Amino acid sequence: MQLNIDLTGRNVLVTGTDTSARQAVRRYQAAGAVVHRLTSPHDAGPDAGGQGTLLPGQLFLVAAVEDGQPGWSAFLGRCRQAGLPVAAEPAAGPAGNVTLVGGGPGTGDLLTVAAVKALRDADVVFYDRLAPYQELPLLTSAELVDVGKKPGHHKVSQADIEKLMVESALAGNNVVRLKGGDPYVFGRGGEEVAACVSAGVKVQVVSGVTSAISVPAAAGIPVTHREVSHMFTVVSGHAPLTEQEHHHLAGLGGTIVVLMGIGTLHQLAAGLRRAGMRPDTPMAVVERGYRPGQRTTIADLGTITSAAAGCSNPAVLVIGEVVRVAEANRNHAGEAVDLDRLAASLLGS
Ligand code: SAH
Predict the structure, then answer these.
(1) How many Å separate Cα 197 from the centre of its chain?
(2) In terms of CATH, what superfamily is 212-347?
(3) Under a CB-based contact definition with an 8 Å cutoff, are residues 165 and 126 in contact?
(4) Is CATH 3.50.50.60 the classification given to domain 97-209?
(5) Active-site residue flag, 128
(6) What's the rounded Cα separation, in Å, for the pair 84 and 261?
(7) What is the mean pLDDT of each run of 10 residues along the chain (349 residues)?
(8) Which atom of ligand 1 lies closest to the CA of 317?
(9) Nearest one of 147, 47, 52 to 103, comparing CA atoms
């Protein structure tokens, strides 16, 4: 959380222990304030300005961090009586902790309340490009570290991410690891938890809205629908499936949702057809859900490979009759469909 007020040159008194007030101090400094500190109510002299020579009239605002020390209320009461506004500020998150946070599919609107709170309380955020990273400066005063890409466009390796997180927490930071979607859905969340546990670092996980459900929804596709599909299977397309897996999937009869599936789309479509799935089974490719340039391509199992030739990651594939539900509902609501593209894809051109 950043303050969206310009406090350039204003004297602000931030009360609270150094540990609890560290993020509030950062926020007020970032807003341009000249920050004065009062760490204990016992140091609050009878002059409501608190420290030393500052008089109430010279202060613009008191930022009162909720640090749990008894005794602040008398001091803050005196400030208010002297006509000083008092802003309540949350205490910083615990030092030396890691929180894995699911960031949803890439829009700040689909962050959970717990995610917003964890970001607000963080000292350092290690984020991926699939998380809603553009909105981070509004949500936190933490140091932001992009571990999805380095300047040379190389990803930071998983081992290095784990090392960075653990070292930062051991140095006393409250660390947030912000990931796209949900940390436990193809997100390596389990490995990151294990790395923290084995280093003796306290770790918790905040679930996120997974793209497996929310990205189809962005295109109007419900992953289940009464009398159409009563199950959905979420599959990684990172590597091609085995012939046995194709048979299992084809035999299930429900909705198949594939993440990271653009690179193996051809093998998947061919494999499911070999396993007996009908070529007219409807399919959708939803690219860049909730982001600029969101696009839905609809075809069927027999035509998808050519229809989706121009599609790129990130994208979610949906296979099954629920795709038709979206088509039917789209007449009433939801995104506009590109009719030329739809016609072209149905014709297999
Ligand atoms: N943990 C994540 C998934 C990580 S795997 C989750 O629960 O959503 C990365 C894959 O997620 C991408 O290849 C793509 O298939 C999918 N994905 C994530 N965000 C997406 C978005 N905004 N639009 C389309 N696909 C997305």
Answers:
(1) 22
(2) Tetrapyrrole methylase, C-terminal domain (3.30.950.10)
(3) yes
(4) no
(5) yes
(6) 58
(7) 84 95 93 94 66 70 94 91 92 93 96 96 94 92 87 80 97 97 96 97 98 97 96 97 97 96 97 97 97 96 95 97 88 56 61
(8) 15
(9) 147
Residue 124 corresponds to which tokens in the numbers above? 């350092």
Which atom of ligand 1 sits closest to the CA of residue 214? Answer: 8
Ligand 1 pocket test, candidate residues 135, 234, 316, most atoms within 8 A of CB:
316
CA atoms within 13 A on the CB side of 95: 10
Domain boundaries, the chain: 11-89, 97-209, 212-347
Q: What is the 19 CA–ligand 1 centroid distance (Å)? A: 36
Give how far Cα 311 sits from Cα of 216, 217, 238, 285, 315, Å: 15, 18, 16, 8, 8
pTM, two decimals, is 0.86
Nearest to residue 269, comparing CAs of 245, 239, 304, 236?
A: 304
